[in-house]
């Protein structure tokens, strides 16, 4: 099983896959990186996760993502962590939900987990392309 993570400073979206399709899993709220690590590690235990794909963006906040990865690997060294470019995934998630006519009130609560699914699906698609 693979977990996709759309890491935010207060809200983190989670997606999951046990094959070639990513599915939104949920959203966790946290006040610090250590809380985010704890909550995601707990999900990893519950779902028997072997790998997580963490979306990141270049620039000033890249160190935030790297800090999360460092803390996560210290707690769960047996789980492989991959940093994956997530540029514009939240905007893409919002656009997809608008096309699907998801009400605005629900979009706000779901956009991070949909973004996590987009990040994870992008990673899974890259694996499929390598097979050809």
Which blocks of ≥5 consecutive residues have pLDDT under 50? Answer: none
Helix-strand sequence:
EEEHEHEHH
Report the portion of residues in β strands: 15-25%
Helix content: 40-55%
Q: Rg from C-alpha positions? A: 14 Å
What is the CATH homologous superfamily assignment?
Answer: YqgF/RNase H-like domain
CATH topology: Nucleotidyltransferase, domain 5
The first-level CATH class is given as Alpha Beta
Global morphology:
globular
Write down the overall mean pLDDT.
Answer: 85
> In which order are the strands of the major sheet placed?
3-2-1-4-5
Number of strands: 5
Q: Architecture in CATH?
A: 2-Layer Sandwich
Describe the structure.
The protein has 132 residues and is an alpha/beta fold. The chain has one domain (2-131): YqgF/RNase H-like domain (Nucleotidyltransferase, domain 5), CATH 3.30.420.140. It has four helices and five strands, in the order βββαβαβαα. It has helices spanning 33-47, 62-75, 89-99, 104-131, and strands at residues 2-6, 11-17, 23-29, 51-56, 80-85. It has a five-stranded mixed β-sheet with strand order 3-2-1-4-5, with helices on both faces. Strand 1 and strand 2 (11-17) form a beta hairpin. The longest helix has 28 residues, at 104-131. The mean pLDDT is 85.
């Amino acid at each position: 099983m693979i977990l996709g993570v759309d890491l935010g400073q207060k809200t983190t979206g989670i997606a999951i896959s046990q094959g070639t399709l990513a599915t939104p899993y949920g959203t966790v709220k946290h006040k610090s990186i250590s809380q985010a690590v704890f909550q995601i590690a707990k999900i990893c235990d519950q779902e028997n996760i072997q790998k997580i794909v963490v979306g990141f963006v270049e620039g000033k906040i890249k160190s935030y993502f790297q800090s999360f990865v460092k803390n996560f690997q210290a707690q769960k060294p047996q789980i492989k962590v991959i940093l994956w470019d997530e540029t514009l995934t939240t905007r893409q998630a919002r656009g997809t939900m608008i096309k699907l006519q998801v009400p605005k009130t629900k979009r706000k609560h779901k956009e991070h987990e949909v973004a996590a699914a987009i990040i994870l699906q992008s990673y899974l698609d890259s694996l499929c392309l390598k097979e050809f």
